[in-house]
């Protein structure tokens, strides 16, 4: 055993000596010889480009009105993309030193940023990041709807109306993203009726045949009180022929003008004065109903009282105010039509005249009333034309 151990040790020594003689170098294992004796480097070259983002990687509950901006120094961008269930629109600057989002963020979405830049040596720098936007419940988002309906043809008195299902407290913010385009062009203005309704009307009645397009580009736009626009939408409608009726409550006559030409004079009756005085001013037909049930309870009168009524299927009813003024057939008051005011505030006429007017009228037609001291108001129906335009445009937020 002893002699075998001595032989093993001697063998190892001989092998080590042999390896040293054949290798031609005494360098330690793991090093590579280089020309001139210089050691090599295993580290790859690093790009000098540095990329930064306006939204930090890993950020959560990011407001949807934030924008994404990437900047690069000591290099230029070769590509940038931001994805979140779909690409986020953006633009690369002409000098390729920055990228700015042009689309808007959506709530409750995880976004992935990918940016590639190169320095002056052509070395690439890759930037990746993720962030998540805040979730928004429906009561924190406001949805725009339009009146008239898309594709409708309406009268010369109907303004473009946008309604919001959640109140807009920051009128200025939202209105910056509302636009009305008319062909032919007509001067006009927005007027906020309330936090849930804004109108746009021209300075004068619409030019017949006008094409109107309304845009509410409010997606993710702040509406105040932590509310944001839910969706961007647009709608278009057409203005028909001009139909303007003029009612004189003193002579009890209605004159109907089509495209400026008198085409019919109709004997009428309006509200008994002073208790049911019909409002003077400019009204607009809001809706049409071939037959309409009318109950005095809706205007605060007991239907079973001496001034009450409960009428079923009143024919050719066209609403003018939210408070209950209509134009309609009133066969029960034909004897008074053209002579006396005996209604509860509505404009009554014979069934034949009412049928003719109904068939020739559309929503948005104008009815101008004179002769009483009780005036039409801005919000009791579509009362936009009862304000001079100089005053009306003061209701704009901009």
Automatic annotation (TrEMBL):
**What UniProt keywords are attached to this protein's entry?**
Acyltransferase, Cell membrane, Cell shape, Cell wall biogenesis/degradation, Lipoprotein, Membrane, Palmitate, Peptidoglycan synthesis, Signal, Transferase
A GO biological process this protein is involved in?
A: cell wall organization
Query: SUPFAM superfamilies, from UniProt?
Result: L,D-transpeptidase catalytic domain-like
Residues of the signal peptide:
1-21
Spell out the molecular function terms from Gene Ontology: acyltransferase activity; peptidoglycan L,D-transpeptidase activity
Fetch the PROSITE patterns from UniProt: LD_TPASE, PROKAR_LIPOPROTEIN
Residue span(s) of domain L,D-TPase catalytic: 243-370
What is the name listed in the Swiss-Prot or TrEMBL entry for this protein? L,D-TPase catalytic domain-containing protein
- What cellular component GO annotations does this protein have? extracellular region
A Pfam match: YkuD
Concerning InterPro entries, the annotation shows: Big_10 (IPR041280), LD-transpeptidase (IPR050979), LD_TPept_cat_dom (IPR005490), Transpep_catalytic_dom (IPR038063)
Show the active-site residues: 328 (proton donor/acceptor), 346 (nucleophile)
Q: In which pathway does it act?
A: Cell wall biogenesis; peptidoglycan biosynthesis; Glycan biosynthesis
Acyltransferase listed as a keyword = yes
Q: Name the lineage.
A: Bacteria, Bacillati, Actinomycetota, Actinomycetes, Propionibacteriales
